[in-house]
Amino acid sequence: MDLHEKYFRLQEILRQMGQIVVAYSGGVDSAFLLKVATDTLGSNALGILAISPTYPSREYEKAKNLAHKMGARLQIIQTHEMDKEEFIKNPVNRCYFCKSELFDCILELAGPDRYTNLADGSNMDDLDDHRPGRKALKERGVRSPLQEAGLTKAEIRELSKQLGLTTWDKEALACLSSRFPYGERINLKNLKMVDNIENYLRDLGFTNIRARHQNKTLKIEVDETEIKRFFSDDLRKKIIRKAKETGYRYVTIDLEGYRQGSLNKVLENSPDPGQITMRGA
Predict the structure, then answer these.
(1) Distance (Å, rounded) from C-alpha 92 to C-alpha 227?
(2) How far lies 21's CA from each of 2, 33, 118, 165, 270, in Å?
């Protein structure tokens, strides 16, 4: 199918569903899905924005405003993955526990008599990555209409642009827990440290930012075209000062630049990723 055939296929999938609850983060995929669902189903589409300490603080108002501009119905909930030991000890299947908490909370809100179709924004590209959260979705009957329509990330960006969505060129959005190497425990203080540094770097104009947290070491990833900016003495010293004020002892720059899922590299040569408990990545 060409791009527009896939779009029409997505609309048909949504019509067959009749009504839908979309797990909405304000990212490229979930924003596109909520937009198309709202255009297709009207008030029978509902977006759920889940807030917790793992959600980047700067994204909250952006996500609310975008849903409003789309004319989408939106409800905001709190999730409590940070109360779960199996999540904070940060195993390689951490995302399973996060997605379990998310959709259990959505199911509780939606109720069996209101919304029977739950959906997330997974696309075809996600099938090639380490995504333990898929197991949680399958267990709860959550559908992925973008995958069912055969849409890739690039196609979703192009269709988002055609629909006038500002997210068409938005950077990849991931929860803050993805900044910690598997096996290093996650806590509220360290989540705030990561969030603080990433907001600071964005204020300096950097893009595709990841503040990778490794104990007392901060490893910064930014778009590879921006790495040379760190060789400005004034800027470098400002970033070091901010990092140390935030609580880091050492500051490093990843010379390869931002790579989505870079912490998953540790899994590539492991015969049993579930047994990985090391602190490094």
Answers:
(1) 29
(2) 27, 10, 5, 20, 37
**Which amino acid belongs to residue 88?**
I
Nearest CA to 264 out of 174, 170, 203 is that of 174
**Torsion angle in degrees (nearest 10) through CA of 242, 245, 251, 257:** -40
Give residue-wise pLDDT tens across range 161-203: 999 999 999 998 899 999 999 999 999 999 999 999 999 999 9
pLDDT, one tens digit per residue, over 96-121 is: 999 999 999 998 887 666 677 999 99
Residues composing the chain? 281
Q: Is the separation of the CB atoms in 146 and 127 below 8 Å?
A: no
Contact 87, 95 (CB under 8 A): no
Whole-prediction pTM value?
0.89
The residues that bridge with 24 in the sheet, in sequence order, are 49
CA 26 vs CA 38, 120, 248: distances in Å: 15, 12, 30
Identity of the residue numbered 236: R
- Asked if 31 and 24 touch (Cβ cutoff 8 Å), the reply is yes
The helices-and-strands tally (H runs, E runs) of the chain is 10, 7
**Which sign, positive or negative, has the C-alpha torsion 269, 275, 278, 281?**
positive
Residue with tokens 């503040």: 211
Give tens-digit pLDDT for 38-57: 999 999 999 999 999 999 99
